[in-house]
Protein backbone atom coordinates (compact mmCIF):
# COMPACT_ATOMS: atom_id res chain seq x y z
CA UNK A 1 0.00 0.00 0.00
CA UNK A 2 1.35 3.37 -0.94
CA UNK A 3 0.80 6.54 1.04
CA UNK A 4 0.35 9.71 -0.86
CA UNK A 5 2.66 12.47 0.36
CA UNK A 6 1.56 16.00 1.13
CA UNK A 7 3.49 17.25 -1.87
CA UNK A 8 1.01 15.61 -4.22
CA UNK A 9 -1.93 17.53 -2.75
CA UNK A 10 -3.29 20.44 -4.68
CA UNK A 11 -1.79 23.81 -3.85
CA UNK A 12 -5.11 25.25 -2.78
CA UNK A 13 -5.45 22.51 -0.09
CA UNK A 14 -2.07 23.28 1.49
CA UNK A 15 -2.75 26.96 2.07
CA UNK A 16 -2.89 28.11 5.73
CA UNK A 17 -6.33 28.58 7.12
CA UNK A 18 -7.16 32.14 8.23
CA UNK A 19 -7.44 32.84 12.00
CA UNK A 20 -10.16 34.99 13.46
CA UNK A 21 -9.53 36.62 16.87
CA UNK A 22 -12.35 38.38 18.64
CA UNK A 23 -11.62 41.45 20.74
CA UNK A 24 -14.92 41.15 22.60
CA UNK A 25 -14.88 40.46 26.36
CA UNK A 26 -15.25 36.78 27.20
CA UNK A 27 -18.61 35.92 28.67
CA UNK A 28 -19.22 32.48 30.07
CA UNK A 29 -22.94 32.81 29.44
CA UNK A 30 -22.32 33.18 25.69
CA UNK A 31 -20.39 29.91 25.54
CA UNK A 32 -22.72 27.74 27.56
CA UNK A 33 -26.28 28.25 28.59
CA UNK A 34 -26.13 27.95 32.38
CA UNK A 35 -28.88 26.95 34.66
CA UNK A 36 -29.72 29.26 37.54
CA UNK A 37 -28.01 26.90 40.02
CA UNK A 38 -24.83 26.60 37.91
CA UNK A 39 -24.64 30.35 37.44
CA UNK A 40 -25.03 30.86 41.17
CA UNK A 41 -22.05 28.56 41.85
CA UNK A 42 -19.78 29.78 39.04
CA UNK A 43 -20.04 33.44 39.99
CA UNK A 44 -20.01 33.05 43.79
CA UNK A 45 -17.08 34.38 45.83
CA UNK A 46 -14.79 32.15 47.85
CA UNK A 47 -16.36 33.21 51.15
CA UNK A 48 -19.81 32.44 49.77
CA UNK A 49 -18.71 28.96 48.70
CA UNK A 50 -17.22 28.38 52.17
CA UNK A 51 -20.47 29.47 53.82
CA UNK A 52 -22.54 27.12 51.63
CA UNK A 53 -20.25 24.23 52.47
CA UNK A 54 -20.20 25.10 56.18
CA UNK A 55 -24.01 25.10 56.36
CA UNK A 56 -24.03 21.43 55.35
CA UNK A 57 -22.24 20.55 58.59
CA UNK A 58 -25.26 20.75 60.90
CA UNK A 59 -23.40 19.96 64.11
CA UNK A 60 -20.86 22.69 63.37
CA UNK A 61 -23.62 25.20 62.68
CA UNK A 62 -25.39 24.47 65.97
CA UNK A 63 -22.05 24.59 67.78
CA UNK A 64 -21.37 28.00 66.26
CA UNK A 65 -24.82 29.25 67.33
CA UNK A 66 -24.20 27.95 70.86
CA UNK A 67 -20.84 29.75 71.05
CA UNK A 68 -22.32 32.97 69.65
CA UNK A 69 -24.99 32.90 72.36
CA UNK A 70 -22.33 32.37 75.03
CA UNK A 71 -20.13 35.18 73.76
CA UNK A 72 -23.12 37.49 73.47
CA UNK A 73 -24.08 36.63 77.05
CA UNK A 74 -20.79 38.02 78.39
CA UNK A 75 -21.89 41.46 77.16
CA UNK A 76 -25.06 41.32 79.28
CA UNK A 77 -23.98 38.95 82.05
CA UNK A 78 -25.00 41.36 84.82
CA UNK A 79 -28.45 41.72 83.26
CA UNK A 80 -29.19 37.99 82.93
CA UNK A 81 -27.76 37.15 86.36
CA UNK A 82 -30.44 37.11 89.09
CA UNK A 83 -27.94 38.28 91.72
CA UNK A 84 -24.64 40.10 91.92
CA UNK A 85 -21.93 37.44 91.87
CA UNK A 86 -20.39 38.88 95.09
CA UNK A 87 -23.62 39.15 97.10
CA UNK A 88 -23.55 36.96 100.20
CA UNK A 89 -26.74 35.44 101.55
CA UNK A 90 -25.57 34.49 105.02
CA UNK A 91 -28.87 32.77 105.88
CA UNK A 92 -28.62 30.50 102.84
CA UNK A 93 -25.18 28.89 102.88
CA UNK A 94 -24.74 25.69 100.88
CA UNK A 95 -28.34 25.69 99.66
CA UNK A 96 -28.89 22.89 97.08
CA UNK A 97 -30.27 23.77 93.62
CA UNK A 98 -33.89 24.88 93.66
CA UNK A 99 -36.70 24.55 91.17
CA UNK A 100 -39.16 27.05 89.71
CA UNK A 101 -42.86 26.17 89.98
CA UNK A 102 -45.96 27.32 88.09
CA UNK A 103 -48.84 25.77 90.07
CA UNK A 104 -49.54 26.02 93.78
CA UNK A 105 -52.25 23.80 95.27
CA UNK A 106 -53.70 23.21 91.81
CA UNK A 107 -53.86 26.91 90.94
CA UNK A 108 -51.71 28.55 88.27
CA UNK A 109 -49.97 31.59 89.72
CA UNK A 110 -46.99 31.93 87.33
CA UNK A 111 -43.29 31.32 87.94
CA UNK A 112 -42.50 31.26 91.66
CA UNK A 113 -40.25 29.62 94.24
CA UNK A 114 -41.07 28.21 97.64
CA UNK A 115 -39.52 29.36 100.88
CA UNK A 116 -36.92 27.37 102.79
CA UNK A 117 -36.73 26.11 106.33
CA UNK A 118 -33.26 25.71 107.78
CA UNK A 119 -32.19 23.34 110.54
CA UNK A 120 -28.76 22.55 111.94
CA UNK A 121 -28.05 18.84 112.21
CA UNK A 122 -26.15 18.46 115.47
CA UNK A 123 -24.82 15.04 114.49
CA UNK A 124 -23.23 16.04 111.18
CA UNK A 125 -22.97 19.76 112.02
CA UNK A 126 -24.43 20.60 108.63
CA UNK A 127 -27.23 22.89 107.58
CA UNK A 128 -30.27 21.07 106.27
CA UNK A 129 -32.90 22.79 104.14
CA UNK A 130 -36.42 21.71 103.30
CA UNK A 131 -39.14 23.36 101.27
CA UNK A 132 -41.65 25.56 103.08
CA UNK A 133 -44.77 25.13 100.95
CA UNK A 134 -46.61 27.79 102.95
CA UNK A 135 -44.44 30.56 101.56
CA UNK A 136 -44.42 31.41 97.86
CA UNK A 137 -42.35 34.09 96.16
CA UNK A 138 -43.47 35.13 92.70
CA UNK A 139 -40.73 35.98 90.20
CA UNK A 140 -40.65 39.16 88.14
CA UNK A 141 -39.15 39.63 84.69
CA UNK A 142 -37.33 42.66 83.27
CA UNK A 143 -37.30 44.20 86.70
CA UNK A 144 -35.15 46.29 89.01
CA UNK A 145 -33.00 44.33 91.43
CA UNK A 146 -29.53 44.46 92.91
CA UNK A 147 -27.32 47.27 91.71
CA UNK A 148 -24.22 46.55 89.63
CA UNK A 149 -21.62 48.23 87.44
CA UNK A 150 -21.77 46.96 83.87
CA UNK A 151 -18.21 46.14 82.80
CA UNK A 152 -17.19 48.08 85.89
CA UNK A 153 -18.16 51.30 84.13
CA UNK A 154 -21.92 51.91 83.96
CA UNK A 155 -24.18 51.63 87.00
CA UNK A 156 -27.45 49.75 86.62
CA UNK A 157 -30.01 47.60 88.41
CA UNK A 158 -32.01 45.99 85.57
CA UNK A 159 -32.24 42.19 85.58
CA UNK A 160 -33.91 39.59 83.40
CA UNK A 161 -35.54 37.91 86.40
CA UNK A 162 -35.85 39.04 90.01
CA UNK A 163 -37.12 37.52 93.22
CA UNK A 164 -38.65 39.44 96.14
CA UNK A 165 -36.31 40.67 98.84
CA UNK A 166 -34.91 37.88 101.05
CA UNK A 167 -36.54 35.24 98.81
CA UNK A 168 -34.44 32.05 98.35
CA UNK A 169 -33.99 32.05 94.56
CA UNK A 170 -30.94 29.89 93.78
CA UNK A 171 -31.44 27.74 90.68
CA UNK A 172 -27.97 26.15 90.97
CA UNK A 173 -27.55 26.47 94.73
CA UNK A 174 -25.12 28.56 96.77
CA UNK A 175 -21.51 28.19 97.89
CA UNK A 176 -19.81 28.38 101.30
CA UNK A 177 -20.44 32.13 101.52
CA UNK A 178 -24.03 31.98 100.34
CA UNK A 179 -23.26 33.35 96.86
CA UNK A 180 -25.53 32.31 94.00
CA UNK A 181 -23.77 29.73 91.81
CA UNK A 182 -25.77 30.54 88.66
CA UNK A 183 -24.84 34.21 88.81
CA UNK A 184 -21.18 33.36 89.41
CA UNK A 185 -21.09 30.91 86.49
CA UNK A 186 -22.72 33.44 84.15
CA UNK A 187 -20.37 36.26 85.12
CA UNK A 188 -17.35 33.94 85.29
CA UNK A 189 -17.86 33.17 81.60
CA UNK A 190 -16.66 36.69 80.76
CA UNK A 191 -13.15 35.88 81.97
CA UNK A 192 -12.94 32.25 80.90
CA UNK A 193 -14.18 32.88 77.35
CA UNK A 194 -12.26 36.06 76.59
CA UNK A 195 -8.97 34.73 77.92
CA UNK A 196 -8.93 32.28 75.00
CA UNK A 197 -9.50 35.00 72.39
CA UNK A 198 -6.80 37.30 73.73
CA UNK A 199 -4.39 34.42 74.23
CA UNK A 200 -4.89 33.13 70.69
CA UNK A 201 -4.26 36.60 69.29
CA UNK A 202 -0.83 36.55 70.97
CA UNK A 203 0.03 32.96 70.08
CA UNK A 204 -1.12 33.27 66.45
CA UNK A 205 0.82 36.49 65.97
CA UNK A 206 4.01 34.89 67.27
CA UNK A 207 3.40 31.56 65.51
CA UNK A 208 2.69 33.00 62.07
CA UNK A 209 5.47 35.61 62.20
CA UNK A 210 8.23 33.40 63.60
CA UNK A 211 7.11 30.26 61.77
CA UNK A 212 6.69 32.21 58.54
CA UNK A 213 10.18 33.71 58.81
CA UNK A 214 11.71 30.30 59.54
CA UNK A 215 9.97 28.63 56.61
CA UNK A 216 10.44 31.42 54.07
CA UNK A 217 14.02 32.51 54.76
CA UNK A 218 15.47 29.26 56.14
CA UNK A 219 19.18 29.24 57.03
CA UNK A 220 20.22 30.85 60.30
CA UNK A 221 16.75 32.34 60.84
CA UNK A 222 15.24 28.86 60.75
CA UNK A 223 17.93 27.53 63.08
CA UNK A 224 17.33 30.21 65.73
CA UNK A 225 13.54 29.81 65.66
CA UNK A 226 13.78 26.01 65.88
CA UNK A 227 16.14 26.16 68.86
CA UNK A 228 13.73 28.55 70.64
CA UNK A 229 10.86 26.15 70.02
CA UNK A 230 12.85 23.16 71.27
CA UNK A 231 13.85 24.93 74.47
CA UNK A 232 10.24 25.95 75.26
CA UNK A 233 8.82 22.53 74.44
CA UNK A 234 11.44 20.74 76.55
CA UNK A 235 10.36 22.54 79.75
CA UNK A 236 7.59 20.70 81.67
CA UNK A 237 4.34 22.65 81.54
CA UNK A 238 3.34 22.60 85.20
CA UNK A 239 6.72 23.77 86.63
CA UNK A 240 6.81 26.47 83.98
CA UNK A 241 3.33 27.65 85.02
CA UNK A 242 4.43 27.65 88.65
CA UNK A 243 7.48 29.76 87.82
CA UNK A 244 5.69 32.29 85.66
CA UNK A 245 2.75 32.66 88.05
CA UNK A 246 5.16 33.22 90.94
CA UNK A 247 6.71 36.13 89.04
CA UNK A 248 3.46 38.12 89.21
CA UNK A 249 3.45 40.25 92.38
CA UNK A 250 0.79 39.55 95.00
CA UNK A 251 0.02 43.27 95.11
CA UNK A 252 -1.27 43.24 91.53
CA UNK A 253 -4.94 43.93 90.98
CA UNK A 254 -7.14 41.10 89.65
CA UNK A 255 -7.26 42.77 86.21
CA UNK A 256 -3.46 42.83 85.97
CA UNK A 257 -3.34 39.20 87.06
CA UNK A 258 -5.90 38.39 84.34
CA UNK A 259 -3.79 40.00 81.64
CA UNK A 260 -0.67 38.38 83.08
CA UNK A 261 -2.24 34.91 82.84
CA UNK A 262 -3.41 35.69 79.29
CA UNK A 263 0.07 36.74 78.17
CA UNK A 264 1.61 33.65 79.81
CA UNK A 265 -0.77 31.31 78.00
CA UNK A 266 -0.17 33.10 74.70
CA UNK A 267 3.63 33.00 75.05
CA UNK A 268 3.61 29.26 75.77
CA UNK A 269 1.24 28.08 73.06
CA UNK A 270 2.77 29.45 69.84
CA UNK A 271 5.42 26.77 69.30
CA UNK A 272 3.18 24.11 67.73
CA UNK A 273 1.63 26.57 65.29
CA UNK A 274 5.04 27.98 64.37
CA UNK A 275 6.31 24.53 63.37
CA UNK A 276 3.19 23.85 61.31
CA UNK A 277 3.54 27.20 59.50
CA UNK A 278 7.24 26.55 58.89
CA UNK A 279 6.65 23.12 57.34
CA UNK A 280 3.93 24.49 55.03
CA UNK A 281 6.01 27.44 53.88
CA UNK A 282 9.03 25.25 53.16
CA UNK A 283 6.98 23.47 50.49
CA UNK A 284 4.92 26.40 49.23
CA UNK A 285 7.83 28.81 48.77
CA UNK A 286 9.04 26.78 45.76
CA UNK A 287 5.79 27.21 43.85
CA UNK A 288 5.71 29.20 40.61
CA UNK A 289 3.35 31.86 41.91
CA UNK A 290 5.81 32.67 44.72
CA UNK A 291 8.60 33.08 42.16
CA UNK A 292 6.34 35.32 40.08
CA UNK A 293 5.61 37.47 43.14
CA UNK A 294 9.34 37.82 43.80
CA UNK A 295 10.06 38.82 40.20
CA UNK A 296 7.52 41.64 40.27
CA UNK A 297 9.14 42.98 43.44
CA UNK A 298 6.77 41.81 46.18
CA UNK A 299 8.28 42.04 49.66
CA UNK A 300 8.60 38.93 51.86
CA UNK A 301 5.90 40.17 54.28
CA UNK A 302 3.40 40.49 51.42
CA UNK A 303 4.34 37.12 49.91
CA UNK A 304 3.89 35.37 53.26
CA UNK A 305 0.70 37.17 54.29
CA UNK A 306 -1.00 37.51 50.91
CA UNK A 307 0.08 34.41 48.98
CA UNK A 308 1.40 31.72 51.33
CA UNK A 309 -0.71 31.90 54.49
CA UNK A 310 -4.09 31.69 52.64
CA UNK A 311 -2.82 28.46 51.06
CA UNK A 312 -3.22 26.57 54.33
CA UNK A 313 -6.04 28.56 55.91
CA UNK A 314 -7.94 25.36 56.74
CA UNK A 315 -5.06 24.26 58.97
CA UNK A 316 -4.97 27.63 60.72
CA UNK A 317 -8.70 27.50 61.39
CA UNK A 318 -8.40 24.03 62.87
CA UNK A 319 -5.48 25.17 65.03
CA UNK A 320 -7.43 28.20 66.27
CA UNK A 321 -10.46 26.18 67.29
CA UNK A 322 -8.20 23.78 69.19
CA UNK A 323 -6.06 26.48 70.79
CA UNK A 324 -8.94 28.49 72.26
CA UNK A 325 -10.32 25.62 74.40
CA UNK A 326 -6.76 24.68 75.31
CA UNK A 327 -6.24 28.15 76.77
CA UNK A 328 -9.58 28.00 78.56
CA UNK A 329 -8.47 24.73 80.11
CA UNK A 330 -5.10 26.28 80.96
CA UNK A 331 -6.72 29.16 82.84
CA UNK A 332 -9.11 26.75 84.53
CA UNK A 333 -6.26 24.50 85.62
CA UNK A 334 -4.15 27.40 86.93
CA UNK A 335 -7.06 28.90 88.86
CA UNK A 336 -8.11 25.48 90.15
CA UNK A 337 -4.60 24.97 91.55
CA UNK A 338 -4.65 28.45 93.08
CA UNK A 339 -1.94 29.73 90.74
CA UNK A 340 -4.01 31.84 88.39
CA UNK A 341 -6.90 34.21 88.98
CA UNK A 342 -8.13 34.78 92.49
CA UNK A 343 -10.93 36.48 94.35
CA UNK A 344 -12.63 38.92 94.00
CA UNK A 345 -12.43 38.25 90.25
CA UNK A 346 -14.33 35.15 89.20
CA UNK A 347 -13.96 32.58 86.42
CA UNK A 348 -14.89 28.95 85.92
CA UNK A 349 -11.49 27.94 87.25
CA UNK A 350 -11.90 30.09 90.36
CA UNK A 351 -15.31 28.50 90.97
CA UNK A 352 -13.87 25.00 90.63
CA UNK A 353 -11.24 25.93 93.18
CA UNK A 354 -14.04 25.67 95.75
CA UNK A 355 -14.43 21.97 94.91
CA UNK A 356 -10.88 20.78 95.53
CA UNK A 357 -11.81 18.65 98.54
CA UNK A 358 -13.45 15.30 97.88
CA UNK A 359 -15.52 15.77 101.02
CA UNK A 360 -16.97 19.01 99.64
CA UNK A 361 -17.76 17.31 96.33
CA UNK A 362 -19.46 14.39 98.08
CA UNK A 363 -21.59 16.58 100.33
CA UNK A 364 -22.18 19.58 98.01
CA UNK A 365 -21.95 18.15 94.45
CA UNK A 366 -23.48 21.27 92.86
CA UNK A 367 -20.15 23.05 93.42
CA UNK A 368 -18.86 20.98 90.47
CA UNK A 369 -21.42 22.51 88.09
CA UNK A 370 -18.91 25.06 86.63
CA UNK A 371 -17.20 22.13 84.88
CA UNK A 372 -20.31 21.64 82.69
CA UNK A 373 -19.89 24.86 80.62
CA UNK A 374 -16.17 24.11 80.29
CA UNK A 375 -16.92 20.72 78.74
CA UNK A 376 -19.67 22.10 76.49
CA UNK A 377 -17.49 24.95 75.21
CA UNK A 378 -14.60 22.61 74.40
CA UNK A 379 -16.86 20.19 72.52
CA UNK A 380 -18.54 23.06 70.64
CA UNK A 381 -15.19 24.52 69.56
CA UNK A 382 -14.04 21.12 68.28
CA UNK A 383 -17.20 20.60 66.21
CA UNK A 384 -17.02 24.18 64.92
CA UNK A 385 -13.38 23.66 63.95
CA UNK A 386 -14.26 20.52 61.98
CA UNK A 387 -16.91 22.36 60.01
CA UNK A 388 -14.74 25.41 59.29
CA UNK A 389 -11.76 23.27 58.30
CA UNK A 390 -13.83 21.25 55.83
CA UNK A 391 -15.39 24.42 54.41
CA UNK A 392 -12.01 26.12 53.92
CA UNK A 393 -10.23 23.05 52.51
CA UNK A 394 -10.16 23.37 48.69
CA UNK A 395 -9.52 19.65 48.23
CA UNK A 396 -12.75 18.46 49.86
Outline the secondary-structure elements.
Layout: H1 28-31, H2 36-42, H3 46-55, H4 58-73, H5 77-80, E1 101-104, E2 107-121, E3 126-138, E4 140-150, E5 154-162, H6 181-217, H7 219-234, H8 237-247, H9 254-268, H10 271-284, H11 288-295, H12 300-308, H13 313-336, H14 348-352, H15 358-363, H16 371-392
Plain-language structure description:
The protein is of the alpha+beta class. The protein folds into 2 domains: 79-179, no CATH class; 183-392, Orthogonal Bundle (MetI-like fold). Helices cover 53% and strands 13% of the residues. The protein has 16 helices and 5 strands. A hairpin with a 4-residue loop joins β2 (107-121) and β3 (126-138). α6 packs antiparallel against α7 (219-234), α7 (219-234) runs antiparallel to α10 (271-284) and α11 (288-295) runs antiparallel to α12.
For the record, the CATH architecture of the largest domain stands as Orthogonal Bundle
What is the 3D form? globular
**Number of alpha- plus pi-helical segments:** 16
Portion of residues in helices? Answer: 40-55%
For the CA atoms, what is the radius of gyration? 31 Å
Distance between the termini: 55 Å
Instruction: Write out the CATH superfamily name of the largest domain.
Output: MetI-like
Percent strand equals: 5-15%
Tell me the major beta sheet: 3 strands, antiparallel
Secondary structure tally: strands? 5
Low confidence ranges: 1-9
Just give the CATH class of the largest domain. Answer: Mainly Alpha
Structural class estimated from helices and strands = alpha+beta
Arithmetic mean pLDDT: 80
